[in-house]
Amino acid sequence: MSATAKIHATPHERTARPWAPAALACMGVVFGDIGTSPLYTLNVAAKSASPDGQVSPAAVLGIVSLIFWSLIIVISIKYAILIMRADNHGEGGILALLALVSPRRAKRNTWRAAMVVIGLIGATLLYGDGTITPAISVLSAIEGLKIYAPQMTPAVVPLTVLILVALFLIQRRGTSFVGGIFGPVMLVWFIIAGILGIGGIVREPAVLAALSPLAAISYFSHAGPLALAVIGGAFLAVTGGEAFYADMGHFGPIPIRIAWFGVALPALTLNYFGQGGMLLAEPNSPAVIDSPFYSLAPQWAHYPLVMLATVATVIASQSIISGAYSMTQQAISLGFLPRMRVVHTEGREIGQIYVPFVNWALALGTLAAVIGFGSSDALAGAFGIAVSLLMVITTLMATFVALHWKYNPLIVYAVNGSFLALDLLFFASTSTKLFDGGWFPLMIAFVISFLMLTWRKGEEVMDTVRLEVRQPTTAFIEELQRNPPLRLPGTAIVLGRMAKGVPLALSHNVNCNHVLHERVLLVAANVAEVPRTPDEDRIIVRPLAAGLARVEIRFGFMDEPSIPESLAIGVAQGQIEPFDPKRVIYYTGHETIIPSGRRPGLPRWREAIFAFLHHNAQRPGAFFKIPGAQIMEIGVEFEI
Questions:
Q1: Exposure of 187 in the CB half-sphere (CA atoms within 13 A)
Q2: In Å, what is the CA distance from 44 to each residue of 140, 182, 288, 380?
Q3: DSSP three-state, residue 612
Q4: Quick one: average pLDDT of 508-519?
Q5: In terms of pLDDT, which residue wins out, 101 or 237?
Q6: What are the backbone angles phi and psi of residue 552, rounded to the nearest 5°?
Q7: Are 510 and 484 in contact (CB under 8 A)?
């Protein structure tokens, strides 16, 4: 998987960008993962097809043909042409697709609720993928040292660890300076990969027979028990295809398609066929079987190629790390994860946000994968299963959305059903590696899915509790009229999760201190199921009484949530009376949750997990960019 943090640009601005620079930029962001797959794909598949150490010509042609047609059907047709049509106001990705399902309207025991759960599992698979991609990519690049310097074998894992540690350490500084060279470096990578492939094809032109799908059909119809394992190895060629959809909103579909069909697909095709040519020419060579990619290069170019491959895999790793940050921010906004600290770096496009917790969690998982598995061959089993299951989920959700958009059901079932059948075949083939490492990303996805569902259900329970204990707005206003409190000069802004009733932070303050500011704004921030909310739709103001108004602020799930900036928009639009932003005071509630098991919805042990997550969530003031010196927290206990 490869994705990046969002770009601060409207869909119109992204569409208006010249396609050539956008196509160049997307090479390093969208194609980082799939572009470095030639480092390990063919050798994994070839080893699966040759348990005796000798790969047959029929196996070589069958594998290369399967890889080529997988790139055509899965990547070119499914993702580049069809899936990218299912956009959410120009944005793509599993969470954008999930938002199209309208999870807030999902009722229990309905298809919509089932799709929400399936979509969450798909999102968490990206975290599992995110721990494996940096590990297998960098490790496979460094393993090139073993071809001409076998004595360097013991240094492969330590060097990989050092590179990955350095990569995770620099995240907090922002990576926009690296982002500027992503595209040009990957363009060089694709050109060199294509040139190397031409050399292999010239050496053994018979490999061009793999252009026919009959080569794959013929081989796999006779492969017997080896077929699933070989298909699972060949599937690694299409890992990274989900980045086409995930990064669609960053560059637009046209630049991605131009870069794919104009550069990446031809280069990958030439390289895979060139590797196949080397295997046909030297079927019994252990060095060629171990690394057909590096065997394409002349000896004098070996070490420069290792360096270029390392840089390319670091780019692929950086893209997925940035993508994990972006997806986490979206998940928080959609209410699937507790608030976390999100640091906005000085970069404006790539690497512009940094989520410390996610960074170090990914670092721990990635380093554990490198040290625990020790080689790219071992990691290959752990890699494919998460991506293949994600592809199954993407197809299912795209089908649901297409039916929701009233497309012809017969066409939807015929087209998506065909893709689903292929996805299930790939998933079945990668599932053979479940106990050889495939459990690792699935375990990560299961844990995060469980936490997401626990958090979401816990917040639903808490919303019910908050609403029960909140004083109705009319009763609060009547009480103010019967027993007017002392009015303090200035403006108070009271934050609450819901636009119903009176937040406890305000009612407690009035009941205990018998004072109220001259102007009070009851602010409720909500996230719409669209990527971004335009300024004209951001603020809704409803007067409640003299000096008292309710303000609803709507953010998109890819917006940066800032209460002060949003209120400034309301002032500029004339919806809110002007006030001095440096003298206003913000009231927020500091909630303490006590799990008791008395309320339906969650068993007590899950309530305890929810309470732990809630306790460690970022404070609302910090999350909504409110200056700390202007915040007054009022503690409230809730027993659930």
A1: 14
A2: 11, 27, 12, 7
A3: helix
A4: 87
A5: 237
A6: -100, 125
A7: no
